[in-house]
Design a protein that fits this description.
Two copies of one chain form a homodimer. By secondary structure, the first copy, chain A, is α+β, with helices and mostly antiparallel strands. Chain A has 15 helices and 13 strands. Among the domains of chain A are: 56 residues, SH3 type barrels, CATH 2.30.30; 190 residues, Arfaptin homology (AH) domain/BAR domain (Substrate Binding Domain Of Dnak, Chain:A, Domain 2). In chain A, strand 11 and strand 12 form a beta hairpin. Chains A, B: One of its GO terms (molecular function) is phosphatidylinositol binding.
Chain lengths: 556, 556
């Protein structure tokens, strides 16, 4: 009997090779094997081709399972379509309402997804459209190709585990979906975390001049990202961009696709509950081979990489090192991938890896610092939205209005020169040429204005996008720390151990905040300098052009 | 019996001291003596005060005369209100439609008026409102205070004279209102001009490298115009601006009011039929004591003076010298004024003063040159209207849009700095200050943009205004020369004398065209240089400000 599947959601073919399928339609599958999240088959109208695996349910003898079933047994699973964003991230995303009304480039949005070993090797494709469609609850078709995010799964499995062996005297939070709970912060605080921590996994928080900070990476490195190259596969029907990464500590180039970054991102988010993992540049379904988008994504990835390599904890972690150094050997890659996905030191266990300074922090002081930082991030977030809107508008004005004005002036001078050229007397000729040249100079200046924003405003906008991502992370980070503090205050009995564990969370949080400030000051200083240098160069170029024009009047 | 007058037009009092009067109302005059074109009296409602003399008709025993009656006996006189613009000028004005759709500062418009000895000393006042109201035919109240322009009067009296002794074999033009006729060009060509020409009045056209040109002024000079001072008179009810003029050849300052310039202008226009007398800057009734207007008029007068003193014929003529050199001695002034107004060498007789090069010009060549110049002026006129519109719009954009954009960027940077200031760690402080300073720098640059047009666009606009005036003059000048050429072609019989006289007109016309081109090349070269130097200075100022801001980031 031919393998059949029931269609769960309408799908309209958008590319050659795809076929449209309708809800409740029965389709015949040519194979059960997915190709990058797609199945090949024939619809009821006899059309053969590809459709998203997640849009159908394979009909089997005994069990009916969504092909993307990932272990969720909650009755919600069916109604809530699989999401490619972790709960944590999508929470913070919706809390902040990032990008709303900003008119900016929406750099705050990001995407994470996580493949299982099975579908990893099948390589889902970048061509999946509309991955950033807003997701409602129930009835909404899933984004394809997509898998449920691992952080959520881990979170919930952990939760089950915790509930199973719940015996601590300190009460658990009622809201089992709070970040404090999901991150593992609560489990750690209650002493429920346990894992074997190797020396290499140990992360040190040291007491610096300005408070707790991550111990510096003794072997700092950076990593370049080359221009991506377009690759095609899957009989040429699907194509993707491949980025060449060259870390300075190996100096060996490895090739990675956006989905590899995406996978890595998901690993990092689940691994480090109080570290602000830089957001990846926006995933874009359409026009992603267009030069502008490629250039913008590459710039975004460069910033992302910069923040990865300059973070003492993130830079050194195994999964990132695997990502940066594993070559074309598929087996080695798969091994590292599996290891990362089975890493025990995630969530609650992450806190087990942290060594703190000898003297515990003053709770009051921590609380006040965290409050201050909360105010800081709120204001910074509000104001960089304004800055971003303003400079994007300024860029638009320069590329349109300013350019047009200078060019109109240039053209009118040229018209003046043309009128004057009707007088061909010797003493006129020099002036006529000079005026014509002045007209051209103004037209050129118009072009300068149009080209300039790319040099000195876009980079600021890129930076702001990255920071909007960080600012979106911090509410969760602060939430974890606050959850711990609250718990400690509520239950003064278990002071000793609870305090120690709370101190670990506080140290890590303050170290991360310190790192944020340091990086922020470094980044904004260098970006403002870059901007001003570019602007100076720009106005000098205009001046030179005008001086050139002025000289033409000396001809007489 | 009290002196009474009948009101010809409604007048609504606009200033203290004035009274309203209605058409057909009878008013009682306190005195027949006009004060600057105003009479003092009492209206039928018993209100006493000033009203325009030209709005009433004094009731006498035998004759009914408009107080401004100037010798016109045509029945038209009553219906056509007195105009302050000469026929010639208003013709050319309407022909060109100058300023229509230009959106510019309307520099093409100008005003001339001419006082008789009687009302001169009464000093009509600058405060006459709305002197540039468009004038319809009939029914429209006259502009006050005002007198009929002398050129028209002379033209028509000459015309009568010509008709009286008409005996030439060459026919007269049928259109007695053509410029060729009114300027005296026809009369001269027909040998009807006669006057005694002193050596000092002789004007030489010499053959230069580029054709006929005015003999250079052996004693060139310039004349400065100081900032005007406000004077009040007439019991403080009327006030006016007085300009201090200091010509370099006497180095003695004389004080002149706008109406003196106006009077001089009228003399020059009637005196020199084929010379382009520079137009005076626009007369403006309201807001004329406002700084902007005063500054604009002064700049216009400076340009006007520049063109007067650099014209070999205009600079040397008696009436201009009288204007420049006559001091506060009222008697001397009145004497020179009377002499100028009785000058016989106006119109047709002007051509008697011209000496030409020995070899007469080739008619064909003259015709082709004139045709070329006609095309030139047409194109130049069209194109400077576009330039003027463009740079005025550009100025507006810089003063509004550009300024706003830079200031918005500055403000957004300041907001960023303010957010950052919430983090008061030592390593943040330098950056915070630098960003705040950068914000201020951008706000300052916004101001620079707003202030700049005054420096480098307004002067071009002023220059274009002046040239639009010249371009408005040339159709009449060309008309005179063409009228002469046509007449010569029509009547080959009288070749000898007619040709000689036509040659004189051609030489004068070409000399004036040559002068126009020379002045134009000189003015536009220097103005474009000025503009570019200003622009360079402007962009250097911006660069310096940005460099200053950049340095603030080195503080760490």
């Amino acid at each position: 009997m031919a393998l059949r599947a029931k269609v769960l959601y309408d799908f309209h073919s958008e590319n050659p090779g795809e076929i449209s399928i309708s809800e409740n339609e029965l389709v015949t599958l040519f194979s059960e094997e997915e190709l990058e999240g797609w199945l090949e088959g024939e619809n009821s109208r006899g059309e053969a081709g590809l459709f998203p695996a997640s849009y159908v349910e394979i009909i089997r003898d005994h069990i009916t399972s969504n092909t993307n079933n990932n272990g969720f047994s909650s009755p919600k699973t069916k109604a809530l379509p699989p999401t490619q964003t972790s709960f944590t991230s999508s929470d913070s995303q919706s809390q902040r309402g990032l990008g709303a009304g900003s008119g900016g480039s929406g750099g705050g949005s990001f995407h994470t997804s996580q493949g299982s070993d099975d579908d990893w090797d099948d390589d889902w494709d970048d061509s999946s459209p509309a991955t950033d469609v807003p997701q409602g609850l129930g009835g909404t078709p899933p984004l394809y190709p997509v898998t449920t995010s691992l952080p959520a799964r881990r979170g919930s499995s952990q939760q089950h585990q915790q509930q199973a062996k719940s015996s601590a005297t300190v009460g658990r939070n009622l809201n089992r979906f709070s970040t404090f709970v999901k991150s593992g912060g609560e489990a750690f605080l209650l002493g429920e975390a346990s894992a074997f921590v190797k020396d290499g996994d140990r992360i040190c928080v040291v007491m610096g001049k300005h408070g707790p900070e991550w111990q510096e990476d003794p072997y700092p490195f950076t990593c370049t990202i080359d221009d991506p190259t377009k690759q095609t596969k899957f009989k040429g029907m699907k194509s993707y961009m491949s980025y060449g990464l060259t870390p300075t500590h190996t100096n060996v180039q490895v090739n990675r696709r956006y989905k590899h970054f995406d996978w890595l991102y998901a690993r990092l988010v689940e691994r480090f509950p109080v570290i602000s993992v830089p957001h990846l540049p926006e995933k874009q379904a359409t026009g992603r081979f267009e030069e502008d988008f490629i250039s913008k994504r590459r710039k975004g990835l460069i910033w992302w990489m910069n923040h990865m390599t300059s973070h003492p904890v993130l830079a050194r972690c195994d999964v990132f090192q695997h990502f940066l150094t594993c070559g074309a050997d598929e087996k080695a890659w798969k091994q590292g991938k599996r290891k990362a996905e089975r890493d025990e030191l995630v969530g609650a266990n992450f806190f087990l890896t942290i060594s703190t300074p000898d003297v515990p922090l003053d709770l009051q002081e921590v609380e006040s610092k965290i409050e201050g930082f909360k105010t800081f991030t709120k204001r910074m977030d509000e104001n960089i939205v304004i800055v971003n809107t303003t400079i994007n508008e300024f860029a638009r004005k320069q590329m349109a209005g300013f350019k047009k004005e200078y060019q109109k002036v240039g053209q009118s001078f040229k018209l003046l020169g043309q009128a004057f050229e009707l007088d061909q007397q010797a003493y006129s000729a020099g002036l006529n040429k000079a005026i014509a040249y002045t007209g051209e100079a103004y037209e050129a200046i118009g072009e300068y204005f149009a080209e300039q924003p790319r040099q000195d405003l876009d980079p600021i906008s890129d930076l702001l996008d990255l920071y909007r991502g960080h600012l979106a992370n911090f509410p969760d980070i602060i939430h974890v720390q606050k959850g711990a503090l609250t718990k400690v205050k509520d239950c003064p009995k278990q002071e000793g151990e609870l305090h120690d564990r709370c101190n670990i969370i506080s140290c890590a949080t303050l170290a991360e905040i310190q790192h944020f400030h340091r990086t922020r000051v470094r980044d904004f200083r260098s970006q403002m300098q870059h901007h001003l240098r570019q602007q100076i160069g720009f106005f000098q170029k205009i001046t030179a052009k005008l001086e050139d024009a002025l000289q033409r009047y000396d001809d007489e």
